[in-house]
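Structure in, sequence out. Go:
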């Protein structure tokens, strides 16, 4: 964190814990939930079927209408997937601003929603709706994707009207400054420091 190096699962999880406290403060816990990236990533998280079941189990434990913030690491790059299983809508945020993901991860998320529907005995749509957030801010420099998805999560949590998807729907020229990223790093450090003091 101090040297802007590539961030690990545990750093992302610690920041999600920090954001969870904000949700408590804003009384928004019924609106947003987090999923541990250790359950979703390519490395050491099981085969695609196991990962889809793991995601589905998180949805079932959640509250009705909740969205789930799912950091995903493809092996060398962080992306954020926001899943609304009840509405069968997925927002995709890649700090490199590439188009919608295809292949294994999309299949895993789609299957997780199908499993969720089966457990709820709900007849879902044939195709899950994926939306590319074309207006998200693009990462600057190498190995900074983790910091960017941390800031995406911060922006979502701090949007009390939950209008973030409309804000990022269209391409824009805005970008995070180093001060914006430093704000995330400072929040993370302050949160971690409270455990070292106790």
């Amino acid at each position: 964190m101090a040297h802007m190096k590539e961030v690990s699962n545990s750093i992302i999880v610690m920041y999600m814990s920090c954001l969870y406290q904000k949700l408590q403060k804003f009384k928004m816990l019924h609106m947003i939930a987090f999923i541990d990236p250790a359950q979703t990533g390519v490395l050491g998280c099981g085969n695609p079927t196991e990962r889809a079941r793991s995601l589905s189990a998180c949805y079932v434990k959640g509250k009705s209408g909740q969205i789930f913030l799912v950091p995903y690491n493809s092996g060398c790059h962080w992306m954020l997937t926001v899943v609304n299983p009840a509405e069968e809508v997925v927002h995709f945020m890649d700090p490199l601003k590439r188009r919608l993901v295809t292949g294994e991860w999309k299949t895993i998320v789609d299957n997780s929603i199908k499993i969720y529907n089966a457990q709820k005995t709900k007849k879902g749509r044939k195709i899950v709706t994926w939306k590319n957030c074309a207006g998200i801010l693009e990462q600057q420099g190498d190995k900074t994707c983790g910091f960017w998805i941390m800031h995406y999560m911060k922006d979502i949590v701090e949007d009390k009207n939950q209008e973030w998807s409309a804000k990022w729907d269209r391409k824009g020229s805005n970008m995070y400054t180093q001060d914006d990223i430093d704000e995330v790093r400072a929040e993370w450090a302050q949160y971690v420091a409270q455990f070292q003091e106790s």
